Amino acid sequence: METYNTFYKLLYGEVIKPSDITRLDFFIYAARFQPTFAILMFISSLYFLGIIGYFIFKKEKRGLAYYFAFLGGGLLILSFIITNSSTVGGQVFFILFLIAGLICIITSIPVYCKILNQIKMRITN
């Protein structure tokens, strides 16, 4: 029988009874083996982070470009951390993190290029 590391085990020691398993353990298990709801949660959380970043940096476009680049870089790092996952959910999340990270970085590039063009126009005028 395969054993799974739990966050409870990392924090408090051996799991003795079923109530020792934390909610985070259930989420990780679900993400590894039945990732549908975990994927929906990730997509909605990413959308929420994008909207928050947009409202915070609405007037400062350079900050928005840095925000999306930083968010995309974090997602790319997460994707490479789970790149060798043996479970279906891990492979799905690798692809999802990779695509989302690339989309965030690609989104930040035109915003930053627009800022550079505005600066260039100010200098030439």
Layout of helices and strands:
Layout: H1 7-12, H2 23-33, H3 36-56, H4 61-81, H5 88-124
Helix pairs in contact: 2-5, 4-5
Keywords: Membrane, Transmembrane, Transmembrane helix
Transmembrane segments: 37-57, 64-82, 88-113
Features of this protein?
mainly alpha; 2 domains; 77% helix; elongated
What can you see in these coordinates?
This protein is mostly helical. The protein has 2 domains: 1-33, no CATH class; 35-124. It has 5 helices and no strands. Helix 2 crosses helix 5 (88-124) and helix 4 (61-81) packs antiparallel against helix 5. The longest helix has 37 residues, at 88-124. The chain is elongated. The mean pLDDT is 82. InterPro entries: DUF4306. Keywords: Membrane, Transmembrane, Transmembrane helix.
Helices and strands: which structural class? mainly alpha
Number of helices: 5
Number of self-contained structural domains: 2
Average the pLDDT over all residues and give the rounded result. 82
Helix content: over 70%
Principal-axes geometry comes out as: elongated
Poorly predicted runs of 5 or more residues:
none
Quaternary form: single chain
InterPro entries: DUF4306
Transmembrane segments: 37-57, 64-82, 88-113
Pfam family, one: DUF4306
Keywords: Membrane, Transmembrane, Transmembrane helix
Can you give me a brief rundown of this structure?
The chain is an all-alpha fold. It is built from five helices and no strands.
